[in-house]
Amino acid sequence: MDDIDAWVWWLIGAAGLGIALVVTAMPELGMLALGAVAGAVTAGLGGGVVLQVVVFAVVSVALIAVVRPIAARHRTQRPQLATGIDALKGKHAVVLERVDGSGGRIKLNGEVWSARALDGGQAYEVGQEVDVVDIEGATAIVM
User: Fold this and answer.
1) What is the rounded CA–CA span in Å between residue 139 and residue 114?
2) Which residues lie across from 111 on neighbouring strands?
3) For 92-108, how does the pLDDT look when each residue is reduced to its tens digit (9 = 90+)?
4) Phi-psi region at 102: left, alpha or beta (left = phi > 0; alpha = psi -120 to 50)
5) Neighbour-count burial of 74, counting CB atoms closer than 10 A to its CB (0-12 exposed, 13-18 middle, 19+ buried)
6) Residue 142: its pLDDT value, please?
7) Can you tell me whether residue 13 is helix, strand or coil?
8) Which residues cross the membrane (predicted)?
């Protein structure tokens, strides 16, 4: 074991952390693996064991301190581009068949949708423009 250079051990450690990252899907292990690669580079450049461990610790902690908050922020943000039903909410539609609390038909984004009024007592006549408030199944709720 004395004939294997220290940088090889660091790379073996980085590979082990990389495998653990893939198996567990814990991004922190990837950051530790990058710290191990930095330790390998330090060993390859002739740094002592203490310097290698310090570089490993500093790089790993720095990556965790910087990357984790950014990842957490991205995880909680809603997508900026609305898709699916979320993209239809707030759109304008034209009434094709009288829409009231029990139903009707509208033309929304070039498609014919069944619709009903948000307020059951309200009715919208043919040709009138309405706003889509929500989508419930295949029915647009309009006002």
Assistant:
1) 5
2) 108
3) 999 999 999 999 999 99
4) alpha
5) exposed
6) 96
7) helix
8) 7-26, 32-65
